[in-house]
Amino acid sequence: MEQKKTVTVAEPKSAPPPPPAKADQPRGFIAEWTVTIVLLLFGTTTLVQAFVIPTGSMEDTLLIGDHLLVDKLAYAPPGPASKFVLPYQNVKRGDIIVFRYPVDIRQTFVKRCMGVPGDHIKLVNKQVYLNNKKLDEPYAYHKTEYIDSYRDNFPGEPDVHISESGQEMLEHHVVNGEVVVPPDSYFAMGDNRDSSLDSRYWGFVPRDNIIGKPLIIYWSFDAPTEALSNPTIGLDHLVDLTLHFFTKTRWRRTFMLVHGVNVN
């Protein structure tokens, strides 16, 4: 803080009043930047948020190293006035959603919503059936040829460990060989169907866990899962970025929009 200094000078009594103190100028500058920073923080925490894809469960729609901006207002509950102004919407089948992992809410997952409340879902030899209708899924990828008894013929008897919430789904939400999505819940799957930890293994996504929907890929860098999963930037990753920024950046994916599809 600037200290005031007292200086005594001889002035005639008729001297004009002193000019306005210059302290007002830096104070106005600081105030402007304070408002700017507050708005920026509000925008990056309330309106949009940046995320990175660390695993291949959404390949080839989203790749490991895709950096996304996520719209956090899309699925926000509308207020009495804001519902007439802001484009709030319900989660739809085919939307790509960002949500807190139900088993550990400290983790953030990105999957495709395949079922909304009331939907009946099953898989037969890798093929998804929604409400007794076989789906045409151009976004889905199968990178193994063999059929897994649980993964590809779902629901069934698990041949791997599943979470308690996944077990609860199998015990209480299966009717006539199909999973029935309960109220305020969603069934999510990765587009890389043969390598995705999704609702088949941990159950439904609660509505309150959904953060938003991806808008755009603002940067894509070809890096390993180990580097991207680390909450801090490791030395190896920093060196990799420094040496290979231009060669490992996927320039064709820069500013690519992320769209859902209509699944019916």
Write a structural description.
With 264 residues, the protein is α+β, with helices and mostly antiparallel strands. The protein has a single domain, classed as Ribbon (Umud Fragment, subunit A), CATH 2.10.109. 21% of the residues lie in helices and 23% in strands. The protein contains 5 helices and 13 strands. It has helices spanning 24-47, 164-172, 199-202, 225-229, 235-248, and strands at 48-52, 66-71, 96-100, 108-115, 120-124, 127-130, 133-134, 174-175, 178-180, 185-189, 205-206, 210-220, 256-257. The strands form 2 sheets. Strands 1, 2, 3, 4, 10, 11, 12 and 13 form an 8-stranded antiparallel sheet that branches. Strands 7-6-5-9-8 form a 5-stranded antiparallel sheet. A hairpin with a 2-residue loop joins β5 (120-124) and β6 (127-130). The longest helix is centred in the first third of the chain and has 24 residues, at 24-47. The chain is globular, with a radius of gyration of 26 Å.
> Roughly what percent helix?
10-25%
- CATH homologous superfamily label: Umud Fragment, subunit A
Supply the number of helical segments.
Answer: 5
Secondary-structure element pattern, one letter each:
HEEEEEEEHEEEHEEHHE
Structural class: alpha+beta
How many beta-strand segments? 13
Task: Give the integer mean of the pLDDT values.
Answer: 84
